């Protein structure tokens, strides 16, 4: 009697209990799960005792958040520098013929200052410069030099202007304020031939990701309580070693997930949302919030 091999292949092939879940050499498969949130399941698990008194915690969080707010003078200085740099780039977009190596298609503000989550002493605003063609290191240097020249024409003291170039963009500093410009390009430029000195693909993808994250933030994070929680989590991440692995984008997702009220569009009080982060399993291995809402292969913090 002829018998089948039973393993769908060679007789010496290793048996795999779940052929559709193979990791293809990237380790065991990661299965994301929704963290058990007592506030989300309060309808099915009613409290056996009175609710905890969060007045003291609320006052402490509000007091700490007040200390983390940026000073108005710092905000004004950063806004002035961003306005000048943006005006210079807008003029370059209007005057360019489109054949320059550093031709700009669009300029997008991103980062904490755009999202309204900047913290004290955070005087670095971020912009994403979308070039018409795949940017190179030389065209980034050319664009940064043009911006510095125009800043000097705006009666900005030459001694206070500092410029730093790298492979992913450039940073312009005037006194204590900075504007970080990330270089990226349009998706249509991905089919162009590779040339020496071009910006790496990872840096191009990061610039486009900053734009998507900012757009998602503007559409989904509209409550003040969520912004408060983002600042508090950022403060914790800067002081506790275990939180330093969380990227700013992960902190935004964590704060948004923890502050959502079950069955309503409003957010939980700041004390309840803060306790949800630490008590309800949002930081356990495989928590679903760690999966980016855009990326299929997300970066895991564990």
3D architecture notes:
This protein is an alpha+beta fold and 302 residues long. It is built from eight helices and five strands. It has helices at 55-68, 72-95, 112-115, 137-153, 201-220, 224-239, 248-259, 270-279; strands spanning 104-110, 124-131, 161-166, 169-174, 177-185. Helix 6 (224-239) crosses helix 7. The model is unreliable at 1-26 and 292-302 (pLDDT under 50).
Which features does this protein show?
12% strand; disordered N terminus; 5 strands; alpha+beta; single chain; five-stranded mixed beta sheet; 8 helices; disordered C terminus; 302 residues
Short description:
It is built from eight helices and five strands, in the order H-H-E-H-E-H-E-E-E-H-H-H-H. With 302 residues, it is an alpha+beta fold. Helix 6 (224-239) crosses helix 7 and helix 7 crosses helix 8.
Morphology call: elongated
Largest sheet, strands/sense/barrel = 5 strands, mixed
Number of helical segments?
A: 8
C-alpha Rg, in Å?
24 Å
Topology order in helix (H) and strand (E) letters: HHEHEHEEEHHHH
What integer is the average pLDDT?
Answer: 79
Q: Tally of extended strands?
A: 5
Poorly predicted runs: 1-26, 292-302
Q: How much β-strand is present in the residues?
A: 5-15%
Distance between the termini: 52 Å
Q: What percent of residues adopt helix (DSSP H or I)?
A: 25-40%
- Order of strands, main sheet, comes to 1-2-5-4-3
What is the SS-derived class?
alpha+beta
């Amino acid at each position: 009697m002829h018998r089948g091999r039973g393993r769908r292949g060679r007789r010496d092939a290793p048996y795999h209990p779940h052929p559709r879940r193979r990791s293809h050499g990237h380790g065991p498969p990661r299965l994301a799960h929704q963290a058990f949130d007592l506030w989300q399941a309060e309808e099915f698990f009613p409290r056996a005792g009175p609710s905890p008194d969060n007045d003291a915690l609320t006052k402490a969080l509000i007091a700490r958040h007040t200390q983390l707010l940026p000073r108005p003078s710092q905000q004004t200085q950063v806004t002035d520098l961003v306005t000048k740099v943006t005006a210079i780039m807008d003029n370059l977009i209007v005057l360019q013929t489109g054949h320059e190596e550093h031709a700009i298609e669009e300029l997008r503000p991103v980062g904490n200052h755009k999202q309204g989550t900047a913290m004290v002493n955070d005087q670095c605003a971020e912009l994403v410069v979308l070039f018409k063609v795949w940017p190179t290191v030389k065209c980034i240097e050319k664009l940064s030099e043009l911006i510095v020249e125009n800043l000097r024409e705006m009666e900005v003291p030459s001694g206070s202007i500092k410029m730093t170039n790298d492979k992913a963009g450039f940073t312009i500093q005037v006194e204590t304020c900075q504007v970080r410009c990330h270089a990226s390009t349009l998706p249509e430029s991905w089919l162009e031939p590779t040339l020496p000195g071009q910006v790496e693909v990872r840096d191009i993808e990061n610039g486009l990701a900053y734009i998507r994250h900012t757009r998602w933030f503007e559409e989904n994070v509209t409550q003040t309580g969520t912004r408060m929680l983002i600042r508090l989590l950022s403060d914790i991440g800067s002081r506790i070693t275990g939180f330093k692995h969380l990227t700013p984008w992960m902190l935004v997702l964590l704060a948004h997930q923890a502050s959502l009220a079950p069955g309503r569009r409003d957010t939980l009080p700041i004390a309840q949302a803060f306790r949800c982060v630490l008590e309800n399993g949002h930081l356990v291995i495989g928590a679903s919030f760690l999966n980016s809402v855009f990326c299929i292969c997300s970066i895991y913090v564990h």
